[in-house]
C-alpha cells in the first residue's frame, strides 16, 4: 500500500515537473518578409511596447520579447576577431546567399541560452530573418525542435519594389555591404526562391499571420499589436 502510494506520488511529482519544464520552454515567433520589409523596425517596436513588465497578477511572470536578428548575429560573427567563419559569412552576405545553417543555428542557440541564463523569465523570442530556406528549417528542427516552441510566423508582406526602395534608402547610411542594387537583386531572388516556400509551408499548417508591410511604420505596428494582444 505504502509502495503504491509512493509510486503514485512520484509519478504525480514527475508529471508536475514535466509540465513545469514544458511551460518554461522558450516561445518563439519567427519574423519573416523580404529584405527591407521592416522586420527589424517592427521587432524593435514590439520590444519597446511590451518590454519586460512584471505582471504581479501572473505570478510575477515576465511579459516581453527578446529580439534576435539572425542577420545581426551573422554580422557580429563576421566581425568577431578570430572567427573562422568571418570570410565565408562576408561573401554569402554580399551575394545575398544563405549561410550554412550549422553556423546560424549555433549563434541563435547561444544567444537564446545566454538570454535565459541571465534571466530565466526572458523566454519569449522574436527570431528575425530565420528560417530562410529548407536547410535552415532542417537545422532548426534537429537542434531546437525539442528546446523551443514555435508559436507562429509573423510575415511582413510587401512588393519587391517597396523592399528595394527601402533598402536603397537605408543604404545611404547603413554601411551594409548588401544594401546596393547588385546585392539586392540577388537577395530578392533568394527570398522568392528559398524563403517564400518556407512561409508557404507554415501557411499550410495555419501558422502564418500576414501583415501588409507596405504602409507606414505606425499603421503596420497597429496591426502587429492587435495580433499580439489577441495571440497573448
Ligand atoms: N513601414 C515602413 N515605411 C517606410 N520605411 C520603413 C518602414 N519600415 C521600415 N522602414 C525603413 O526601411 C528600412 C528597412 O527596414 P528594416 O531594417 O526594419 O527592414 P528589415 O526587414 O529588417 O530588413 P533586412 O531584412 O534587410 O535586415 C529602414 O531604413 C527602415 O527605417
Ligand atoms: O538566417 C539567416 C539570416 C541572414 N543571412 C544572411 O544575412 C543577410 C542579411 O540578413 P538580414 O536579415 O537582411 O539582416 C542575408 O541576405 C543572408 O546573406 C543568412 O544567411 N541566414
UniProtKB/TrEMBL annotation:
Chain intervals for the UniProt region annotation (NMPbind): 69-99
Pfam families reported for this sequence: ADK
Positions that bind a ribonucleoside 5'-phosphate: 75, 97-99, 129-132, 176, 187
EC numbers for this chain: 2.7.4.14, 2.7.4.6
Cofactor(s) required for function per UniProt: Mg(2+)
Keywords for this protein: ATP-binding, Cytoplasm, Kinase, Nucleotide-binding, Nucleus, Pyrimidine biosynthesis, Transferase
Compartment(s) of residence: Nucleus; Cytoplasm
Chain intervals for the UniProt region annotation (LID): 169-179
Annotated signal sequence range: none
UniProt-listed SUPFAM superfamilies: P-loop containing nucleoside triphosphate hydrolases
Molecular-function annotations in GO: ATP binding; nucleoside diphosphate kinase activity
GO terms under biological process: 'de novo' pyrimidine nucleobase biosynthetic process; pyrimidine nucleotide biosynthetic process
Main localization (coarse): nucleus
A GO cellular component annotation in the UniProt record: cytoplasm
Positions bound to ATP: 36-41, 170, 215
InterPro entries on file: Adenylat/UMP-CMP_kin, P-loop_NTPase, UMP_CMP_kinase
Positions bound to CMP: 136
Highest taxon above the source species: Eukaryota
Cofactor: binding comment: Binds 1 Mg(2+) ion per monomer.
Enzyme superclass (EC): transferase
Family of the protein in this entry: Belongs to the adenylate kinase family. UMP-CMP kinase subfamily.
Record's subunit section: Monomer.
Function: Catalyzes the phosphorylation of pyrimidine nucleoside monophosphates at the expense of ATP. Plays an important role in de novo pyrimidine nucleotide biosynthesis. Has preference for UMP and CMP as phosphate acceptors. Also displays broad nucleoside diphosphate kinase activity.
Recorded domain comment: Consists of three domains, a large central CORE domain and two small peripheral domains, NMPbind and LID, which undergo movements during catalysis. The LID domain closes over the site of phosphoryl transfer upon ATP binding. Assembling and dissambling the active center during each catalytic cycle provides an effective means to prevent ATP hydrolysis.
UniProt name for this protein: UMP-CMP kinase
Organism of this sequence: Aldrovandia affinis
Taxonomic lineage: Eukaryota, Metazoa, Chordata, Craniata, Vertebrata
Amino acid at each position: 500500500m505504502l509502495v503504491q502510494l509512493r509510486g503514485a506520488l512520484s509519478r504525480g511529482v514527475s508529471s508536475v515537473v514535466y509540465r513545469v519544464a514544458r511551460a518554461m520552454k522558450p516561445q518563439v515567433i519567427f519574423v519573416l518578409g523580404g529584405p527591407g520589409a521592416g522586420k527589424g523596425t517592427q521587432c524593435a517596436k514590439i520590444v519597446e511596447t511590451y518590454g519586460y513588465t512584471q505582471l504581479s497578477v501572473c505570478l510575477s511572470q515576465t511579459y516581453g520579447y527578446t529580439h534576435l536578428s539572425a542577420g545581426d548575429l551573422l554580422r557580429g560573427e563576421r566581425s568577431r576577431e578570430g572567427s573562422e567563419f568571418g570570410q565565408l559569412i562576408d561573401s554569402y552576405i554580399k551575394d545575398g546567399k544563405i549561410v550554412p545553417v550549422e553556423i546560424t543555428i549555433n549563434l541563435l542557440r547561444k544567444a537564446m541560452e545566454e538570454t535565459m541564463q541571465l534571466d530565466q523569465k526572458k523566454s519569449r523570442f522574436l527570431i528575425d530573418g530565420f528560417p530562410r530556406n529548407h536547410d535552415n528549417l532542417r537545422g532548426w528542427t534537429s537542434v531546437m525542435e525539442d528546446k523551443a516552441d514555435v508559436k507562429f510566423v509573423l510575415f511582413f508582406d510587401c512588393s519587391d519594389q517597396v523592399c528595394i526602395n527601402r533598402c536603397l534608402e537605408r543604404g545611404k547610411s547603413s554601411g551594409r555591404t548588401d544594401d546596393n542594387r547588385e546585392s539586392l537583386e540577388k537577395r530578392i531572388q533568394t527570398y522568392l526562391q528559398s524563403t517564400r516556400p518556407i512561409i508557404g509551408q507554415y501557411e499550410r499548417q495555419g501558422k502564418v499571420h500576414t501583415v501588409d508591410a507596405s504602409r507606414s511604420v505606425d499603421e503596420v505596428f497597429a496591426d502587429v499589436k492587435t495580433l499580439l494582444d489577441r495571440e497573448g
